[in-house]
Amino acid sequence: MTEFLLGAAAFVLGTVALGLVRLLRGPGHADRMLAAQLLGTGGVAALLLLGVATGVGAIAEVALLLALLAAFASVAFVSGVHRPEGSGTTSGTAPSAASSQNENKRDSK
């Protein structure tokens, strides 16, 4: 059974390596983020299989930590990718109000 679990872990790591190619060459940000999620999920799976195969319980804790970091990475991606450029921490309402005032000045001339 140990050989099967180690073989399954090697197979999962092989698929993670293919995901690494997509991470490096992905055409868009979303493709790269999904590949990063694959790395996290595959890493967790490989670590859990390795922990069961070897009988080391601490590997499961490392897998849980990796899962937590992968979740934080996806939250950081979602919160950072949809922010308008140049908005900083503001909501972005001031530039649109200023541009509407400039349009009103041009229309009144």
- Oligomer state equals single chain
* Low-confidence region ranges: none
Instruction: Give the C-alpha Rg.
Output: 23 Å
Largest sheet: none
How many domains would you count in the coordinates?
1
Please, how many helices? 4
Strand content: under 5%
Q: Structural class of the secondary structure composition?
A: mainly alpha
H/E topology pattern: HHHH
Q: What is the terminal separation in angstroms?
A: 83 Å
| Rounded average pLDDT | 79
What is the number of strand segments? 0
What's this entry about, in short?
With 109 residues, the protein is mainly alpha-helical.
Features:
109 residues, mainly alpha, 4 helices, 0% strand
Q: What would you say this structure looks like, in words?
A:
By secondary structure, the protein is mostly helical. It has one domain (2-81). The chain contains 4 helices and no strands. The longest helix has 26 residues, at 29-54. It is elongated and about 55 Å long. The termini are far apart.
